[in-house]
């Protein structure tokens, strides 16, 4: 049957089928060509992701994904000593965990296209406004994430991708090329607006196209309806069914 | 692993992951709980769908879907003797084909929840405007589908669902309860606007809830991040991983 494209990541992946989401846009682009499989885990960092790895990507599945996006780091980059400390993973451990994930996927399939996506930038003002909307004056005054520190994780992600010979999307840098990225791309200083989702979609599609996974060049799973002869439909299906 | 919900149908299913699409909304609602699998085939009628049945739903898969939506009829209802004649299937054959599809799914799994969805209503004026936008003055003056005839297919679909003891969504009737359904729910007199997609989503979710497939009551596939003890993450995964 069709190949699978697995989206493995944190909440920004889990929410990718909401209105305007990048996951849904991929599923639409690959309709009748590949299945887009959602494996997003809100709040997860790379350390916790490792516990899922062998469940989601069993080494002996016989049918490994044709491509996987790995999109962690937004939680790893939560600061030590602040409200989201429990999600914090050091940069060195983040890199090491990404390496383990990539190595495992390569073991599952040497031909799998692997795309590491960096965390998006953080708008500290947006995070604080969001915290105040939840907790009022009790909201922590000190940010639980900063854009600067998240940028270090983004660099580490890009470096790891280079080191491992896989693709990467430097979302942190890409989004900051646009004026007003803070509100245009981020809904609460961290998660994505529909415009932010569109950036992820465009960047991932660019890489899939480079990697030989252009939806335009992939065959339909079954005959296009215009190829079916109404008087002899069997003909089209005999040729095109596997 | 997780159960699968398969969306089997024509273009209205194939396009269901576009912006505001009902398929994407289902995938979002079942994130971390079930996989929503897109099996939509633009232009297909139930006669051609039968050729796909054993490929998409192999009887011996060992892992049949937990639920399937069957959403055909818009093409079966194309009128004989008009521009879309090749897609026409008689009402009797439409019913018989739906019966075959349901029977096959029941053979695959006696516990699968099956939902037949009727074609949406047709706005003949909208269809004509669409044809003119494509073909100008060469557009056929006579409609290739009428709302009245499509309504007969919708009734046949509901009857067949009753006869076979499976669920149905009478989309044709439901949409026409709202004033201005012609433009509110249909983009070209046949396919769905985001508002039209929202109706399909709401109606399907209602049935899934009745059928014991409420996403709210289904367990997460892995621990919620708040259940993970940062100092002893293994604990949460030992309990919750299968």
From TrEMBL, chains A, B:
GO biological process, one term: lipid catabolic process
Keywords for the protein's UniProt record, in alphabetical order: Hydrolase, Lipid degradation, Lipid metabolism
Domain of life: Eukaryota
CDD domains linked: Isoamyl_acetate_hydrolase_like (cd01838)
A molecular function GO annotation: hydrolase activity, acting on ester bonds
Transmembrane segments: none
Pfam families named among the record's database cross-references: Lipase_GDSL
PANTHER family, alphabetized: GDSL-LIKE LIPASE_ACYLHYDROLASE FAMILY PROTEIN, EXPRESSED (PTHR14209:SF36), ISOAMYL ACETATE-HYDROLYZING ESTERASE 1 (PTHR14209)
Similarity comment: Belongs to the 'GDSL' lipolytic enzyme family.
Protein name, per record: GDSL esterase/lipase At5g62930
Gene: LOC107491758
